[in-house]
Structure formats: C-alpha cells, structure tokens
Amino acid sequence: MDLNEGNISLLSDDELTYTEKEFVDRLLLKKVEIDELFAKQSKDLDSIVRQKEELNKREETIQYELSGLHGARVVLDQLINENQVKTEQENEEQ
C-alpha cells in the first residue's frame, strides 16, 4: 500500500485499489446503507412493540371478561342446583 500515490488497497496488491477519495466515498455509501437498514429495523421493532402492547391490552380485556363469565356460570350452577334440590324436596312431599 503506497500512501504517497494517494491510493489505498482494499484487497491484495493484484486486485482493486482506490484513491483516498474513492475509499471515503465507498465508506460513506456503506454508512448510508447501514443507516437505512438501521432505520428500517427500528421501524419494524416499533411496529412489533405496538402490536405487542395491543395484544396485551386485548388479553387483559378478555381475561377480565372470562372472569366475569366464570362468576356468572358459578352463580347459575348454584341456582340450578338449589332449584333441583327444592324441586326434589317438593316431589318427595307429594
């Protein structure tokens, strides 16, 4: 690598060599590509976080509703059982 000529070799001596300006330009291009990928991945992550929060809210709502429905089932089962016992007692009395 001969810096006096203003060239920088990115590969072996028998392959491509770049001027310092070309080298910096390629680095800047790669940085832009990385920045774009970073921005896309950040956007994707934000989307996933929002979806996760929405799912958590939906899960909480459904769990709350299930709890209420379970309570209603228990009360109905108790009323049915009490009514059956009462009906059996009335039938025995007749």
Describe, in plain words, how this protein is organized in 3D.
The protein is mostly helical and 94 residues long. The protein has one domain (3-93). The chain is 79% helix and 6% strand. Strands 1-2 form a two-stranded antiparallel ribbon. A hairpin with a 7-residue loop joins β1 (7-9) and β2. The protein starts with 6 loop residues before the first strand and ends with a helix. 0% of the residues are buried.
Distance between the termini: 113 Å
Helical amount among residues, as a percent range? over 70%
Number of helices: 1
- Quick check: average pLDDT? 87
Structural class: mainly alpha
Strand proportion, as a percent range, falls in 5-15%
Going across the biggest sheet, name each strand in turn: 1-2
Radius of gyration (CA) equals 37 Å
The low-confidence runs, each spanning 5 or more residues with pLDDT under 50, are none
Shape: rod-shaped
Instruction: Give the domain tally.
Output: 1
Q: Could you tell me the number of beta strands?
A: 2
Most strands sheet: 2 strands, antiparallel
